[in-house]
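Quick one - first record:
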Amino acid sequence: MAKKVALKFGKHSRIDWQRNLNQIREAIETDDQFHLGIYATIFTKLPKVVKEYYRREGITQEQLVCLVKDKSKISALRHLMPHAF
């Protein structure tokens, strides 16, 4: 069985989280429903550190879900946020 490798966050991160945050902001500004649906769906898969980083920058999962007009495409989140549906 393969050994689990810890995610690195910060200077040596494999994923550019700042670039990803900028893409989320751009999708919010342009009201890009396709990408907003994707970002709302994968938000639960992000590491806790990244979620906290996004929260400090003003991006939350609830905000992304509320911005999506067709919520049937993100029905996997129905059990986490029943008030949004």
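second record:
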Amino acid sequence: MIQIAVVEDNDVHRERLEGLIPTALREPFVISSFSDSEAFLGKMEREGKVYDIVFMDIEMGGHSGIETAREALRRYPLMQMIYISQYLEYISPVYETEHLYFIYKPELEAYLEAALKKAVKAISESRSGILEVSWNKIKFYIPQEEIVYMERMLRTTVICTAKEVYKTADGLQELLEKLKGSFVRCQRSYVVNLRYVASYHSTYFEMADGKQISISRNYQDSVKKKLSEYISRG
């Protein structure tokens, strides 16, 4: 089921979009509508709600849809953001954030189906490589390919990506079982993504950012085997 959010403060435009979506989308979906940024972000923060596709009006009273999108994407980077606007001068500013499409409202009917088709394809591709974790009752959806390493500290696992740092109570072994083949455990406290290894030594990895992560004696054989398998896959 695809979760869609419509963030639009104009009742006429919001109802028009809600009426057009069923004619343009063939997948099962649920629409949640919001008339302001605070309600939309509040839903995500309080309930950990995430949306697969968001139609974001850019100008909503005194609030910027671009800033709202930036905050929403920080919480859930895989959200497919589709900007909608009555004003063409926003075509360039929307590139300040990740987004899938920009639709000029008078041309909504002409471009809605193409935008939704592109969004559905992106969702299908992204769902196969997502690590879902939670912290303080908030869920996070992390692209596995962005994870550099994970470190266990007492009862917390710190997940370091190229952009953000996340925390979860889940243990390393539990997380490792959910991850794809480029991850290897190199000691009790660390799991490393081989994609980000700059060089391998018998007792440590040097990561692309210069960080050195040691390989304990108990894990050296399994690391060698995993590294060999990873290299052979190309």
